[in-house]
Amino acid sequence: MPVLSPPRPRIRAVWRRHQPAICRPHHTTPAAPFGQHLGPAMNSPAAPEWRPDPLLTIDELAAWLGKPKNTLYAWHSRGKGPRAIRVGNTLRWRRSEVERWLDDHTDAER
């Protein structure tokens, strides 16, 4: 007696139901009203691109300040050093925050 395989499920074409009535890429923008421009001209200089402030690791900060990592951890626990950000299980420092902290702790002119 031959062995029969189980019947294969029928695949229905349901993908058309989920498509919008007007198919256009998501990155297109609606046209601007007459007389308004959508953006800078092609020949104008591009605006400076925003970049996030780099986050320093404990090793990078210790090398920059010339202090042992244990000192930086002690400062953090006492609230004395530059403000840190907890990312998961580690500490990170914004470069701008460390520079601000250094400026605040610079001796006045004599």
From TrEMBL:
Residues 55-104 form the Helix-turn-helix domain. Signal peptide: none annotated. One of its GO terms (molecular function) is DNA binding. SUPFAM superfamilies: Putative DNA-binding domain. Residues 24-46 are annotated as: Disordered. This is Transcriptional regulator, AlpA family. It comes from Micromonospora auratinigra.
